[in-house]
Amino acid sequence: MAQPKFELPVPSAKYCILSFPSSNVLLVRLNRAKDLNCVNMDGHAELHAIWSWMDAEPNLACGIITGSGRAFSAGADLKEWNNVNQSGGKRTHPPGGFCALSRRSGRKPVIAAVNGICFGGGCEAIINCDMVVAAKKATFALPEVKIGVAAQAGALPRLIKTVGKPRAMEMALTGRTITASEALEWGLVNRVVGDGENEVVGAALEYANMIAANSPDAVIVTRESVKMGWEGVGAEDATRIANEIWGPRLAAGENLQEGVASFVEKRKPRWKPSKL
């Protein structure tokens, strides 16, 4: 598919490949297959720029992240980490954390299409994605304790909200690998598909296209409300904040009126890019 027209310039990418499988969907493919898509500091900065651009670009509704080769991401670039340690330097992540996702808030949803090994920081990143699709061969782990470090990119307090304390403790304290079927049973992923070429990306694209078919304003506001509840804001406070902050902005846009009108007139909505 030809690249859609955008209002903002597409960021440059060295460590990943950007494509647009649908007109409103961004696909980010980590592209360090020989290194199992371990992410170095420059790669984190690159991804921060990409997700920031997606959020700001009116003609994009949703993002997908996947890996090349046999891994989604095996986590941090330990060779780089060791070199930094030896030189007395310091590693830094962007505000969004690992892959600029593990602590990301953002405006628009990101779906993880986990094609293989998903360890360490890679696993931290998918824990904070909005949805996760996994290939049958995908495996998940937080093995940091095995090398004397801790998963500090934001996953641990978020993981417990998703899978509960006993399972979160099992993953974090043992460092053991769990299968895609276990991850599905635990509620860590939405769906498990086969291992065929691009099958997992295709399944993620199905979800992304369903999201992109909806009102972009409503998606942003709805996602924010769900996220507040997951992050620990009480139901009443989350509802009040959503109504006070997002309600007037939602009502001021044209998409709310268009959605109601299209339903009454029994036609497909003609959504406009979000101005929220």
Number of E-type strands: 10
Sheet with most strands = 6 strands, mixed
| Gap between N and C termini | 28 Å
Number of helices: 10
Q: Spell the H/E element sequence.
A: EEHEEHEEHEEHHEHEHHHH
Which strand order do you get reading across the main beta sheet? 1-2-3-5-7-10
Query: How much β-strand is present in the residues?
Result: 15-25%
Give start-end ranges of low-pLDDT stretches. none
* Whole-number mean pLDDT: 93
Percent helix:
40-55%
* Helix/sheet category: alpha/beta
Q: Provide the gyration radius in Å.
A: 19 Å
Task: Describe the structure concisely.
This protein is an alpha/beta fold. It has helices at residues 41-56, 78-87, 121-127, 155-163, 165-174, 180-186, 199-212, 216-230, 235-252, 254-264, and strands at 16-22, 25-30, 62-67, 71-73, 110-114, 117-119, 131-135, 139-141, 178-179, 191-193.
Descriptive report:
The protein has about 280 residues and is α/β, with parallel strands linked by helices. It is about 40% helix and about 15% strand. It is built from 10 helices and 10 strands. The strands form 2 sheets. A 6-stranded mixed beta sheet has the order 1-2-3-5-7-10, with helices on both faces. Strands 4-6-8-9 form a 4-stranded mixed beta sheet. Strand 2, helix 1 (about 40-55) and strand 3 form a beta-alpha-beta unit. The longest helix has 18 residues, at about 235-250. The model has no long low-confidence stretch (mean pLDDT about 95).
